[in-house]
Amino acid sequence: LPSILDTQNKTVHRAIMSSPESSFFECPICLSTFQAPVMLACQHSFCWKCLQKYMKSDGRMCPVCRERIKGDSDITRNLLLEQLLSEKNKDSTSSVPPDRPNNFVRQTNESTKTDTIT
């Protein structure tokens, strides 16, 4: 059973990470990529600042399912989402997009045996 779960988790992880425009990484309030994601007891996630602003103006209910937010203990950091966002950002900054040329060229000066990047 653990190997089946590991395989399923890896498949889900690959699917989430391979979708650059995935709404999985999008706050349902601001419709942008999550910043400091938090999760409610109902399992819906939001940017921390978006949720704070929403709660000040519209009360203490989940903006998605309208479940009541009983207290601050119902709001927790979404550590999994933070980690996935970190991995996604690391992946996106480590590769050059195919439609943009890599402008850096490494040149070696044979007489001085030094490398320059231009």
UniProtKB/TrEMBL annotation:
Residues 104-118 have a biased composition (Polar residues). Residues 27-66 form the RING-type domain. It comes from the Eukaryota. Keywords: Metal-binding, Zinc, Zinc-finger. GO terms for biological process: protein ubiquitination. Coiled coil: none annotated. One of its GO terms (molecular function) is zinc ion binding. It holds the Pfam family zf-RING_UBOX. PROSITE patterns: ZF_RING_1, ZF_RING_2. Residues 86-118 are annotated as: Disordered. The keyword Hydrolase does not apply. This is Tripartite motif-containing protein 3. It comes from Schistocephalus solidus. The gene is TRIM3.
